[in-house]
Every structure is written in structure tokens, then in C-alpha cells.
Specification:
This protein has one domain: Hotdog Thioesterase (Thiol Ester Dehydrase, Chain A, Roll). β5 and β6 form a beta hairpin. The two termini are 21 Å apart. 21% of the residues lie in helices and 40% in strands. Strands 1, 2, 3, 4, 5 and 6 form a six-stranded antiparallel sheet that branches. By secondary structure, the chain is an alpha+beta fold. The chain is built from three helices and six strands.
């Protein structure tokens, strides 16, 4: 049965902009950290993938900001795959404020798998692990 993964982050003073809320670009870091943790939970660390000369190349990111987050807030970053093809994966993310349960951000990140700098099919073992958090949706 597929599941959604969750990563918690605390908003730090250097994450906020002059308006007092999380800078819009900082969310890309939150999502990247979450995806790295999720892959580790699935059994694939970045160093291990690197030893296999497998890299995930981000080709597209789409973020929709819903509510501001501020310094000191704890955020829950959820992630799952909404689309998997032979060579491409699309992560879906939702970020919630843990304190008030409000939706802060939704986003999707598209990536391709590379081996020796060439686009490849997702290796079977990695694809099997990714299926644990795959909720198919229309793209």
C-alpha cells in the first residue's frame, strides 16, 4: 500500500526575508532536503547513488504559495510521487504549518535519471522502492 512521507523543518532566522516570512526560494531547499531524506528512507543515500553514477536531474519545479510561514514555525513537508514513467519522476509536495495545520505550499518537482550524464530508465531496484510512495495522478 503506497504511503506519503513526511519531513519536519523548523523555520530559522536566516530562512526569512525582510517581510518576516519564509523567503520564496527557501522552499526549494525544504523540498530538496525532504526528497533527500525520503530517498534515504527508501534505502538510497545520495553517496550510494553517486557510487553507482546515478543522478537525479531536476528539470522543472512548480510552487504555489498558500500562506506565509514565519521564523520559529515548524513545517511538515509531505511528499510522494504523482507520476512515474520509465525515465521521469514527478514528486508532489504539500507543506503544512504544524502549529495551526494550515496549508503553506503545494508544489511539484520533475526529475530525470542520469547515468554517465545520459538520461536512463529508472533502475528497477530504485523504481520498486519509489512505488512505495506512488499515488498515480493525471499530469
Amino acid at each position: 500500500m503506497p504511503r506519503k512521507m513526511c519531513h519536519c523543518v523548523k523555520v530559522r532566522n536566516y530562512h526569512v526575508d525582510s517581510y518576516g516570512h519564509v523567503n520564496n526560494a527557501q522552499y526549494l531547499h525544504y523540498l530538496e532536503d525532504a526528497r533527500t531524506d525520503f530517498f534515504e528512507e527508501l534505502g538510497y543515500t545520495l553517496p550510494e547513488l553517486g557510487r553507482r553514477d546515478i543522478f537525479i536531474f531536476i528539470t522543472e519545479s512548480h510552487l504555489e504559495y498558500q500562506k506565509p510561514a514565519r521564523m520559529g514555525d515548524s513545517l511538515l513537508v509531505y511528499g510522494w510521487f504523482k507520476h512515474l514513467s520509465s525515465r521521469k519522476a514527478v514528486w508532489q509536495h504539500e507543506v503544512y504549518n504544524a502549529g495551526n495545520k494550515e496549508l503553506v505550499l503545494t508544489g511539484s518537482i520533475t526529475g530525470l535519471f542520469l547515468h554517465h550524464d545520459k538520461i536512463i530508465s529508472i533502475p528497477k531496484d530504485i523504481r520498486t522502492a519509489m512505488n512505495e510512495i506512488y499515488f498515480p495522478q493525471d499530469r
